[in-house]
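Hi support team,

I submitted a single chain yesterday and got back a structure, but I'm not sure I'm reading the token output correctly. Could someone confirm the output below corresponds to the sequence I sent? I've pasted both exactly as they appear in my results page.

Thanks,
R.
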Amino acid sequence: MQLKQDNALEDSATVINNITALFQEINMPLLAERSLYLGIPFKTLEAFHRTLSKQRYDDEKKRFHNRLRYAGITKERTENTFKWEDSTYPFAEPGVIESALTIDFIRQRKNLVMAGPPGAGKSLLAVVIACKAIREGFSLKYKTAHNIVTELREAKAGNSLSGYIKKLIACETLVIEDLTFVTFDLKTAHSFFSIIDGRYRSKTTIITTNGNIKEWVKNFPDEIMSSALLGRFYEEALLVNMNGAKDMRLELAKGMLEVAGKDEGGVKCDRKKP
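Hi R., thanks for writing in. Yes, this is the structure output for that exact sequence:
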């Protein structure tokens, strides 16, 4: 009988510890006092802990999706959605993608540059990494280079340029998609450089590019800033070379068409002639 009582007390103590730990996590110290729960029947404690845990899970899920939307990402992508083999990216250094997926480079405040043709998986990898960073509490903004150029011009026209630049400098991680698809006029180029320069060595910038950044930067309207940009992009950056890869979107579309064709060919139609 004593053994059962001891086990019951031990079980209650474990649940109480779990309850107080949850209240500490959500910064409610007054409800994290163990004395509040002493003497409460075990089943009541257990039910309360389940309810509290579910509420905590739901709140965290909602908070995460709000942070995704604020970052500019419409849907979470997890690591298991990005599938590749050693032969997928023949020019990528061994282990570089695995290294990128650990997001250690973000913790170290280094940059990531992903280069390759359309459909190679750059955007998907960028979103996977961005979602992992958000889950770990990093502030993040996800934008295409075209969006940045457009928003810089709109901010200047609306006398809010300084605030917009500060916002993009402030986030711990900035993802810029399709950098080589845009051209800059001189004023917008200066503003863009201010963003990159403000983040230099203190924040992480992730860049995807379909072309060669070194070639793109030659067309940058300010020659002095062009070489400075390269240095700020590449210094101690993690580089993922996705050139030589097949177009994943095209391969997926072909696969879907093949499956549809087989299904259509396998269906027997018993239609009576009119």
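A quick pointer for reading it: The longest strand covers residues 204-209. Let us know if anything else looks off.

Best,
Support desk
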